[in-house]
Specification:
Helices cover 16% and strands 33% of the residues. The chain has 674 residues and is α+β, with helices and mostly antiparallel strands. The longest helix has 18 residues.
Length: 674
C-alpha cells in the first residue's frame, strides 16, 4: 500500500488562527486548567456517546474524572456522574439501557462496578464488592466480566482478611523467587494472580472464569484488551504466558469454553507476542494481533483472523508496513476500524476482513475508535494546537462533526504559534520526518534559539497530537523554535526504519539528531549559538550520548535516562537481552552503546531529572549521571521527585518541572528573536 504523505500544517485550522491572535501563552498553568477527554464508548443504537473527562485541581494536587453524555449530533453534553470522584471504563449493556463503570466510592476499599440506568432518574448502584478490586470490564449477555488480582485458593472473605493483615503488617519487605518483580511504577506481589471473573448483571454470585483453567493473565500488565468473551457468552479468548519462562514470557492466545476447565493454546508455535483477542459480533471469527520477533516490542503487528469452526488462521495485513492496533470490529463483522501510528500521525483506517486497507483520516491525531450497530463512528481528535475533542467521523470521507465544547473558553485566550512537518536528510542520506514549532509572533527576519526535543521509546514517534508532559508549543511560547525529529528507530515509518537501531541504539539516531541541528543551522532564522536539547527515557539516553559526543548544544536536559546499560538490568525490562543476548554473553554490544563509557567527554551544562518510583528506568541511573558530571566539574543540577514515576504526573510537580526546565534553558540560550 502506498505510504501516506506528510503535509505541511502551519495554522491550518481557523480556530487555531483565532487563538494565535489572542494574548496569553500556552503555559504550564494553562495546561493544568484544561479538561482532558478520554476514549469514548457508544450505545448500541448510536444515539448516546459517553466519554470520561478529567479535571485537575492545582490547589489540592489531585484530579477527578466524570463521565459525560453527548448526543451524536453535538447538540448537548451533560455530566452523568458526580464531580470529585474517579470514574473509568464506561461500558453499555447490550440493550443500551444501562451503563456500567468502575469507581471507588463511599466505603469502597478498591474500585468496584457500578450500574447507572440510562432511561430515567436514578443513582448508580454498586454491583460488586470485590476486596481486591475490579478493572478491565466487559458486558456480554446477562453477565459483567472483570479482572481482579487475587490470592489464588482464598475465598473473597479470606482475601479481605489478608489485605487488612498486609496493611497492618509492620514488616515492609517484599519477596520474590522469580520474575517479574515490578511494572512501571509499582511492585508485583508474587503471591497474587490476575484472573477473569463474571457476575450476573442483576447481582449474584461471582464465578471464576480463568482460574479453573490453570492459566493466569500476563503478570506484568492486564486490561480489557487482555481477553474477550464470545457473543454467546460460552467462550473466552485470553492472553497468558505460553511457557514456564517468566524472564522472557511468551504471550499466547488461549481459547476455552467457560466452565470446561480446559484451555487450548492457539498460538504455541510463535515465540513473539500474540495479543488483543477479539471475537467478531457474529461469533464466527476470532481476531488478534501477531508479532514475529521476540524481544522487539516494535516488531510490526499483523492482524490474524481465526475461523472458529475449523481453527484455520490467516494473517491479512502482511503486505502493509504498519502495525495494527486500537482495533474495533464493524457491526457487520466484515472488517475493522483502527487508529494506526502512520508516519508521524495517528490516522483512522478501515481494514476489511479480506485485508483491504483504506485510510479514513489525514491530518491530526485520532484516538481509538468506537462504533455502534448502526455504523456511527466516534473517536477523540487532537493536534499540536488543540487538546483532545470528541468527534463523529464520516467513514466514507473522514469528515468530522465535533460533539463537545470543552476547553474552547480557555484556548480562545491563548496565543499559539504554528508548526509544520519538514523532511531532511539524516543518517546515510535517508529522509527523516521532523515536526518544527514556531513561537507566537514568529518573525522570519529575526534569529531565534532552538530547543531540540529527543523523543523516548525508542520505538515510539511524535505524532500530531496534544502533549501535556513535553508540550512543544509550551516550550515555543518561551521564545524558542522547537523540533521533534522522528529519527531512525521511530515507529510508524515501517519495519526496517524502526528496527534500524537494533542492537546499535547509538549511531544512526545520533546522526539523525545532529543532522537535524545542521538543518536548523542552515536556516536564516536560527541562531546557531543559542541551541539547546533535551529528552526523556530513550530520549534521555540519546541526549546522554550527545553529552559524550561533539555537538552544537549549549545546555542539555536529561530526564529518566538509560545512562548505564548494565544498571538497566534492575529495571522492569532489560534492553536487548531477549533478542541479542545478555551483557555477559555479548559485552561488545553494551560497551559500544552505553553512555557511561563516554563520560570522559562530558563538558556540557546538564539538568538531570528523575523520579523515585521509576521502575522502567530506575532512579539510580539519574544519580549515576549527576555524580559523574559533578566529579568532572561540569555545571549540572539534579532534580529528584520522591513521589513520581517515569513521568511527572502531579500538577504541582509538573509546574515545577516546566519552570525548572525553562530556568535552565534560558540561562544558556536567551529566548526570543533578535
Amino acid at each position: 500500500m502506498k505510504k501516506v504523505g506528510i503535509t505541511l500544517l502551519c495554522s491550518l485550522m481557523p480556530l487555531a488562527s483565532a487563538m494565535a491572535e489572542a494574548g496569553k501563552p500556552l503555559s504550564v498553568d494553562v495546561l493544568w486548567q484544561l479538561n482532558r477527554i478520554g476514549s469514548p464508548t457508544i450505545s448500541p443504537d448510536g444515539d448516546q456517546i459517553i466519554a470520561p473527562v478529567t479535571q485537575y485541581n492545582v490547589d489540592t494536587d489531585k484530579g477527578a474524572t466524570q463521565l459525560w453524555l453527548f448526543d451524536e449530533n453535538g447538540k448537548s453534553q451533560r455530566p452523568l456522574t458526580a464531580a470529585g470522584l474517579r470514574v473509568s471504563e464506561p461500558t453499555f449493556s447490550p440493550d443500551g439501557t444501562t451503563l456500567a463503570f468502575v469507581s471507588k466510592r463511599n466505603d469502597d476499599d478498591a474500585g468496584q462496578i457500578y450500574l447507572l440506568p440510562m432511561n430515567g432518574p436514578g443513582e448508580a448502584q454498586r454491583l460488586t464488592q470485590v476486596p481486591t478490586g475490579v478493572y478491565g470490564i466487559k458486558w456480554v449477555g446477562d453477565y459483567l466480566y472483570f479482572i481482579s488480582r487475587i490470592f489464588p485458593g482464598k475465598s473473597w472473605d479470606d482475601m479481605a482478611i489478608q489485605l487488612k493483615a498486609d496493611k497492618d503488617n509492620k514488616v515492609s519487605a517484599h519477596q520474590w523467587n522469580a520474575l517479574p518483580y515490578s511494572h512501571f511504577d509499582h511492585w508485583l506481589d508474587e503471591d497474587k494472580q490476575a484472573h477473569v471473573f463474571r457476575i450476573p448483571a442483576k447481582g449474584g454470585e461471582i464465578e471464576a472464569v480463568t482460574g479453573p483453567l490453570n492459566h493466569e493473565l500476563p503478570r506484568n500488565y492486564q486490561s480489557a484488551g487482555s481477553y474477550d468473551i464470545h457473543p454467546d457468552g460460552q467462550w473466552i479468548a485470553f492472553n497468558a504466558n505460553g511457557w514456564d519462562n517468566q524472564v522472557d514470557p511468551n504471550l499466547d492466545i488461549f481459547l476455552a469454553r467457560i466452565g470446561s476447565g480446559e484451555a487450548v493454546n492457539l498460538t504455541p508455535n510463535n515465540t513473539a507476542p500474540d495479543m488483543s483477542p477479539m471475537f467478531s459480533p457474529d461469533g464466527d471469527t476470532l481476531a488478534y494481533t501477531r508479532q514475529r520477533i521476540a524481544g522487539f516490542y516494535a516488531d510490526t503487528a499483523n492482524l490474524v483472523l481465526v475461523d472458529l469452526d475449523d481453527k484455520a488462521e490467516k494473517e491479512i495485513t502482511t503486505d502493509w508496513d504498519r502495525s495494527v492496533g486500537n482495533l474495533t470490529w464493524t457491526a457487520d463483522s466484515k472488517g475493522f476500524y483502527a487508529a494506526i501510528d502512520d508516519a508521524g500521525t495517528s490516522r483512522l483506517y478501515h481494514i476489511s476482513a479480506k485485508g483491504k486497507i483504506k485510510p479514513i483520516t489525514g491530518d491530526t491525531n485520532f484516538g481509538a475508535p468506537a462504533v455502534s450497530k448502526d455504523g456511527t463512528l466516534v473517536a477523540t481528535n487532537d493536534s499540536f494546537l488543540y487538546p483532545a475533542r470528541l468527534v463523529k467521523i464520516n467513514p466514507r470521507n473522514g469528515n468530522t462533526t465535533r460533539l463537545d465544547t470543552f476547553n474552547d473558553d480557555i484556548m480562545k485566550e491563548v496565543a499559539l504559534g504554528s508548526y509544520e512537518s519538514v523532511t531532511y536528510k539524516g543518517y546515510n542520506g535517508q529522509d527523516i520526518q521532523m515536526w518544527v514549532h514556531y513561537p507566537p509572533g514568529f518573525d522570519k527576519s529575526k534569529k531565534y534559539p532552538l530547543m531540540m526535543l529527543v523523543h523516548g521509546g525508542p520505538h515510539n514517534a511524535i505524532t500530531d497530537g496534544f502533549h501535556y508532559r513535553w508540550n512543544a508549543q509550551t516550550f515555543a511560547s518561551w521564545g524558542y523554535v522547537t523540533a521533534w525529529p522522528n529519527f531512525h528507530g521511530s515507529s510508524g515509518f515501517g519495519q526496517d526504519f524502526a528496527d534500524a537501531i537494533n542492537p546499535d541504539w547509538k549511531n544512526k539516531s545520533l546522526e539523525d539528531v545532529l543532522k537535524a541541528a545542521d538543518w536548523f543551522k542552515a536556516q536564516p532564522w536560527i541562531d546557531s549559538d543559542r541551541m539547546v536539547a533535551g529528552g526523556a527515557s530513550y530520549g534521555g539516553y540519546l541526549t546522554s550520548i550527545i553529552l559524550g559526543s561533539e555537538h552544537p548544544f549549549k545546555a542539555l536536559l536529561i530526564h529518566a535516562a538509560v545512562y548505564n546499560m548494565y544498571s538497566q538490568m534492575s529495571a522492569d525490562f532489560a534492553v536487548h537481552s531477549t533478542r541479542f543476548g545478555h551483557y555477559w554473553e555479548k559485552p561488545e554490544i553494551y560497551q559500544s552503546i552505553s553512555p557511561h563509557y563516554f563520560a570522559g567527554n562530558f563538558n556540557t551544562p546538564t539538568l538531570v531529572i528523575h523520579g523515585q518510583l521509576d521502575y522502567r528506568v530506575p532512579v539510580g541511573q539519574g544519580f549515576e549521571l549527576f555524580r559523574t558530571l559533578q566529579s568532572r566539574g561540569v555545571e549540572s543540577r539534579m532534580i529528584y521527585f520522591p513521589d513520581e514515576n517515569h513521568w511527572i504526573m502531579k500538577p504541582n510537580n509538573s509546574i515545577y518541572w516546566y519552570n525548572q526546565v525553562e530556568d535552565w534553558m534560558t540561562k544558556f540560550a536567551e529566548p526570543g528573536g533578535r
